[in-house]
Amino acid sequence: MQGTVSGTRKSAVSTSQSLVAETTSAVRGVFGLTIGNRQAPALFDLTRHGLYGSFIALLAIALVTSVVPMLLGTGGRPGALTLEMLSLVIFLVLQVALSAVALRQFKRLDGLVPFLVADNWMNVVVTVVAVALAFTGIGLQNAALGVGLIAIVNMVNNARLVVKLTAMQIVIFLIARLIGGLLAILLVAMLVGAPPETLTGV
Fold first, then answer.
1. Burial class (CB within 10 angstroms; exposed 0-12, middle 13-18, buried 19+) of 159
2. What is the domain partition of the chain in residue ranges?
3. What is the pTM assigned to this prediction?
């Protein structure tokens, strides 16, 4: 019995250390991609296992940033958490779908999982940085503008260094993702009966 308990504890510690190592490496990869470091892709786990981990991290950080304001008494209207989670899921599904369509046209569907891994981790880092900047008094909108520009640079380098698309393919690919985002906003607007412009900050 003691041997089983000890083995379970060792397994849990090993898993925890693995998650910390994967997260640390991925964060380094995000900063590497942002500055155009060609070695940055090697810092990500670009397998399906890495994809699952990146989605879990993204959903976790989205949940935290939605719940904390409510706990601090600065949360929005009732049902805001559900709306934000629904919006995130719809946004991810449509962007993944449009990304897959674009990559299939380039005969580079094999690049979908690697791109999503790096993109998910980028969104995790960007969200944390934006929230941190907002708490410094810069303001959420100003922080969002700054990290938004960084996110675009990171996304371009992701497509260039991780997926290895050509310049024209990158333009088409980013347009496809933009369309996916706009469709997500319109769909959520229809579902909740709100004007699309009120959801751009969700």
1. buried
2. 2-198
3. 0.80
